[in-house]
Write a structure and sequence with these properties.
Structural class: mainly alpha
GO cellular component, one term: membrane
EC number: 3.4.-.-
Low-confidence stretches: none
InterPro entries: Peptidase_M2
Number of helices: 5
Order of helices and strands: HHHHEEH
Largest sheet: 2 strands, antiparallel
Radius of gyration: 16 Å
Pfam families: Peptidase_M2
Strand order of the largest sheet: 1-2
Number of domains: 1
Strand content: 5-15%
Number of strands: 2
Helix content: 25-40%
Organism: Macaca mulatta (Rhesus macaque)
Mean pLDDT: 95
């Protein structure tokens, strides 16, 4: 019954978080304010995620990723679906993310999640 956790795909444990939080009396740790003070950008958030995966010995994203991904909501008036998603164009080198990223903790977590999909795509390309 994965839906008891928060949604049908068990992607969030929001429904039982208060029961399983490891240190319930500790203050929550949200780096959003510090990220903003340090001038983080959506691109920096994805770079940190890429650095995380390469620190584990996995592959860095190819240069095309940085040129072709949509990491922020367009400012030219185009309407886009902002739900984050990762894409494999099945040519062994074109992997992209579409996400209307805001500099905050939630989107940093989503960036790592989506970069995990990209890592998976890169690992099975051969």
């Amino acid at each position: 019954p994965a839906h008891l956790l928060g949604n049908m795909w068990a992607q969030t444990w929001s429904n039982i978080y208060d029961l399983v939080v490891p240190f319930p009396s500790a203050p929550s740790m949200d780096p959003t304010e510090a990220m903003l003070k340090q001038g983080w950008t959506p691109r920096r958030m994805f770079k940190e995620a890429d650095d995380f995966f390469t620190s584990l010995g996995l592959l860095p994203v190819p240069p095309e990723f940085w040129n072709k991904s949509m990491l922020e909501k367009p400012t030219d008036g185009r309407e886009v679906v902002c739900h984050a998603s990762a894409w494999d164009f099945y040519n062994g080198k074109d992997f992209r993310i579409k996400q209307c990223t805001t500099v905050n903790l939630e989107d940093l977590v989503v960036a790592h999640h989506e970069m995990g999909h990209i890592q998976y795509f890169m690992q099975y390309k051969d």
